[in-house]
Specification:
Number of helices: 19
Mean pLDDT: 78
Low-confidence stretches: 465-473
Number of strands: 16
Oligomer: single chain
Structural class: alpha/beta
Distance between the termini: 72 Å
Length: 473
């Protein structure tokens, strides 16, 4: 073997080249790693480290034992020889994923798996990432046996609206059991007990930087968002008593939160009003990125209505501009709605046409690099208005502005608006917008040939660019 292949680190890097980032490893790659581990002694350790680095369920561990040979002691636990064999592979596991069907398969072996020698967490002594897709209480003891100081990321969810006392106690003990957690996804019910347990659990996690959870009310959001180490937060907004925190109350500032995602799962008639009220009573001055996903329900495919009230959009954008500082770099307002279903209700409706004044409150965000408002009908915004917007966002790199829906109302912008965007946003690389396909006199208009070309653009989508009737041949 060549001398360059002797270092284990080099072999580990080579064997990991085709590894897909995520939880799932293709079976073909698993088979290739197994072959490498059996090829020579030098390949064995790095190949096994990668092969066992991420496993799903307990079947891989049980399959390590000789078929039909499972020795136990007088109490029914695995004998020392079995544990030694399992430990050869379990100590290599850095990421473990398990779901309900996989737990059902080892129900009779659960006591054996919890009887690992030396310490409660010795089954996976080097575990970093734990993904637990089960909410049943009688598996909580097994889950607890995996929680150790080496863990840095946990995904854990409850299907029930209110977790049991055992589950709440386990949740509140995370700070002591896993003090090094940096990423936590914890979906629990919207009961007061659940929210209080989450707040207590997070207060003990001094290194937590990314947190994803279910429905939170404004007070709970502000309490969690003020954690000193938290940088990113994803929460679900539901219905709540708007009188709980009045809009004229003094906003509580979240000190260091840089990235927030709001998922709105309420009836479509209330979705925008809830977000608007929420943003009015919250201030996140250090935030760099905000995504609002409207995942509304109540729309019937057989009898479709309107997915939102267009009259609420300007107030929503105003509240957005007041909640975040001008340092904001990313704004995504997304509707998880198939507008094609509601084409007869909204596409010809001129009430959905939003003009310059609707988006003007976003102009102070001078550091904006990524804007996504592709669901908007921008037909009332003309070339001059878009030029003003482009001049306000000189660092823009991604611009999704209308064109996400096939609006019947023709756009007021022409190709000139497209050129304005390129001229004033030199870092732009992705564009989605609609404009009127009217003829342009390139030869006699100095505006066009004096424009500096943008060689960074890699994606440009112009939607259904309608040809103006006055310029049609």
């Amino acid at each position: 073997m060549h001398i360059c292949l002797l270092p284990t680190e080099i072999l580990h890097h080579i064997f990991s080249i085709d590894l897909i980032k995520g939880l799932w490893i293709p079976p073909v790659l698993l088979a290739q790693l197994a072959v490498l581990a059996r090829t020579c002694r030098k390949f064995k350790e790095p190949a096994l480290d990668i092969l066992w680095g991420r496993i799903e369920g307990f079947k891989p561990l049980i399959s390590c034992l000789p078929e039909g040979v499972v020795n136990t002691d007088r109490r029914g636990n695995f004998a020392t020889g079995e544990w030694s064999l399992i430990d050869q592979y379990a100590r290599r596991v850095h990421s473990f994923t398990v779901n309900s069907p996989q737990l059902d398969m080892i129900n009779n072996l659960m006591q054996m798996l919890m009887s690992a020698p030396s310490s409660p967490t010795s089954l996976f002594p080097n575990l970093r990432n734990l993904y637990w897709y089960d909410s049943r209480e009688h598996f909580s003891l097994l889950l607890r046996s995996f929680l150790g100081p080496t863990i840095t990321s946990i995904w854990w969810g409850f299907m029930s609206s209110s977790p049991s006392l055992t589950q709440i106690a386990l949740l509140t003990s995370l700070g002591g059991r896993c003090p090094s957690i940096r990423e936590l996804t914890c979906h629990v019910g919207d009961s007061p007990e659940s929210s209080d347990a989450i707040c207590k659990a997070l207060s003990g996690l001094r290194e937590l930087s990314r947190f994803t959870t279910g429905t939170l009310k404004p007070r709970e959001f502000l309490r969690l968002a003020s954690l000193p180490s938290l940088k990113s937060m994803c929460v679900r907004l539901g219905t709540y008593d708007t009188h709980e925190m009045q809009c004229n109350s003094t906003p509580i500032i979240s000190p260091k939160l840089e990235d927030v995602i709001f998922q709105v799962s309420v009836h479509f008639s209330d979705c925008i009003a809830i977000v608007e009220h929420f943003l009015k009573i919250v201030r996140v001055p250090y935030c760099r990125s905000v995504i609002v996903l409207f995942d509304c329900f109540g729309l019937d495919d057989d009898e479709p209505g309107v997915p939102y009230d267009p009259l609420h959009i300007p107030d929503l954008i105003v509240s957005l501009s007041e909640c975040f500082s001008p340092a904001l770099e990313k704004i995504h307002l997304l509707f998880n709605v198939d507008f094609a279903i509601h084409i007869e209700d909204i596409i010809p409706n001129r009430n959905y046409v939003l003009g310059f004044n609707a988006v003007a409150p976003l102009m102070p965000f001078y550091r904006l690099t990524d804007l996504r408002l592709d669901w908007m009908c921008t037909s009332a915004i003309d070339d001059a208005s878009l030029k003003t917007l482009a001049q306000s966002w000189p660092q823009l790199e991604s611009f999704y502005f209308g064109a996400g829906t096939r609006w019947v109302v023709p756009p007021s912008m022409t190709f000139t608006a497209f050129v304005h965007l390129i001229q004033h946003c030199p870092r732009l690389h992705a564009i989605q917008m609609s404009f009127c396909a009217a003829p342009v006199d390139y030869d006699n208009d100095p505006f066009f040939f004096e424009t500096i070309p943008n060689e960074k653009i890699t994606s440009a989508f112009c939607g259904d660019c309608l040809q103006s009737a006055t310029h049609a041949p």
